[in-house]
Amino acid sequence: MARPRLGFWQWFAVVLVKPVMTVWTRRTWRGMEHLRGDGGVIIVPNHISHADPLVAAHFVYDSGRWPQFLGKASVFRVPVIGWILHRCRQIPVERNTVEAVRSLDHLVAALDQGGAVVIYPEGTITRDPELWPMKGKTGAARLALATGAPVVPLVMWGPERMFDPRRSRLDPRPRIPVTVVAGPPVDLGRWAGSTPTKAVLEEMTDTIMLRLRDMLTEIRGGTPPPLWERPARPAGERRRPGAAA
After folding, report:
1. Where is 154: in which H helix or E strand?
2. Are 71 and 94 in contact (CB under 8 A)?
3. Cβ(127)–Cβ(134) under 8 Å?
4. CA geometry: angle 112, 117, 118, nearest 5 deg
5. CA dihedral defined by 170, 158, 227, 240, rounded to 10 degrees?
């Protein structure tokens, strides 16, 4: 299959990470055909472990695309690390600041150049006790509405055995079974050309998350619950400085 053209630091990342993942996991890959091609694509994975970005990157790379993850802009300002991230074509994202619009511009530019942009719509590892998908944030929907790029769902089961976020437990044993499945693009056509209101973006996001939930059910079995929602803060309660949103 076709391989992306890579610069030195991209090859360095591949040489560093792929041999580890090849030994660490026993992989079942399906649906790579949904990622092949030259056009920009928004990839939306479920998020169940600190290990799953490595698994997602391995899958996307093996499909013939170079994964471009979003990262906190503050990390890109760290000496050396930020420099390498930039050269590996990762994308800085400002959160909750006036610079957030500029972050959207970076994403649009990456898609215009045929990039495979990876956005975790949940924004963090799911808080559902059984690691089912939870309600998502609207960034992926907003980007899809702004660009018309296809939104390809990607579900994983197995990375939670590599690193279990519920117990903060790393399992370094080799050949841990991992299943990754990419599906056809989510049908968001009914919202094409819509104004990105809160209601529109939330409807699009729920459609994406329900698709991820249903695909995950097919590979892990069981009966999925409704999308987990973050508990609402009591009226008048103020968030502590530095607390997670």
Report:
1. strand 151-157
2. no
3. yes
4. 165
5. 20
Candidates 138, 49, 147; CA nearest to 95 is 138
- Look at residue 74 in the predicted model and tell me its pLDDT: 79
Pairing type for strands 176-182 and 151-157 reads antiparallel
β-strand 67-72 against 25-30: which pairing, if any? unpaired
Residue 83 gets the label, from left (phi > 0), alpha (psi -120 to 50) or beta, of alpha
Instruction: State the pTM of this model.
Output: 0.90
Place of tokens 């599906």: 183
Residues in the chain: 245
Which residues neighbour 70 within 8 Å (Cβ) at sequence distance 6 or greater? Answer: 90, 91, 92, 93, 107, 117, 118, 119, 120
Residue at 70: amino acid letter: L
Angle at the Cα of 228 from the Cα atoms of 155 and 182, rounded to 5 degrees: 10
**pLDDT by residue (tens digit) across 168-216?**
999 999 999 999 999 999 999 999 999 999 999 999 999 999 999 999 9
